[in-house]
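User: I'm putting together notes for a lab meeting next week and I want to include a structural view of one of the chains we've been expressing. I don't have a solved structure, so I'd like a prediction I can at least talk through. The sequence is below, exactly as it appears in our construct file.
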Amino acid sequence: MKYDTRFPSIADLKTRAKKRIPNFAFDYVDGGIDDEHGKRRNREAWHEVEIVPRYLTDVTSADKTTRIFNHDYALPIGIPPIGLGNMMWPGAEMALAGAAQKNNIPYILSTFSTTPLEEIAKAAPDVCWFQLYVPQQVEVMKDLLGRVKNAGFNALVVTLDIPVGAKRNRELKNGLKLPFSFTPNIVWQSMIHPTWAMQTLAHGQPDFVNVLQYKEGPNEGLATFITNFAMHGVTRERIEMIRDMWDGPLILKGVQYDQDFRDALDIGVDGVVVSNHGGRQLDAAPASADSLRNVAVEIGARMTVMVDSGIRTGMDVIRARALGAEMTFSGRSFFWGMGAMGTGGAEQVIEIYRDEIDRTLKQVGCGSYAEMDRSWLK
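Assistant: Thanks for the context. Below is the predicted structure for the 378-residue chain, given as structure tokens.
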């Protein structure tokens, strides 16, 4: 095994991360919306996907690659966007970008990342994608997309499922606000996690460096700016505008409704990420596995279908493929790895998934990820 066997699973990394970083940082990544039923439902739904193994076949090797958007990726697991990524562990975003480039898996940088997009594009030139929260102001959107294109990002991922800011109870209880307010709880949590605190001091307080230039003035508060920055409901007309402006692969993230898939096809979108935002926006949303199961066959034949939310094991990745996904993403897995092991956590997570995907394919008698389909389902 090419990883630290003290933490042989994503669940072990989560446990370690919770001990190693402040509660407000851990809860920011781990938490869901409201009572977190949607987050739990995501995991339960993946467990309900059963695969019938086939034996009497040689499984000496298994091909784990997947080809999407004219690129052959080494593994069908990628790193999705998470804002404030460097809060989980200082330098996390650059470490993840470097590991993604080295291991040839997708890395999606958030609009609300804390590392300049140009630096990420240099660190991961072959595998970097950019996630866009669509700005309300068209001129701001044009400028930001111009920067993304000039930096060399390979795909654009437009997030649809945040028409309104989320009320996440853990964040409220922890006093996590923008701009950061050093409440007694925040100070205390930082003090009792000295390694994290010292690393953060060395790297500097995380900030939304890619969008701050669009603030209307020095007196505009950060929280007000973030609230007003993105559209309150991305329209079809705006996606059509983006399609005209962006000549590379265009992906819509957060799609679950059948008509939204069909509208995306009409617009000329190249792919979708079936997602409920990890249970962080709507507690009543269907589990991603269930939404993926319900994607019409003709949709999958005409665009690249991907999925996130609730993926925690290599078995889940194969389950997703059986349901029709060509690529999977797991934000919490990678950022728990960061919290548990620092910048070395990126390689740990990748190797755990590599091992588990390989073992699962061989266990069920499937010679390649591409070969796995619904015929393996119970």
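A couple of points you could mention at the meeting. DSSP finds 18 helices and ten strands in the chain. The radius of gyration is 20 Å.

User: Perfect, that's what I needed.
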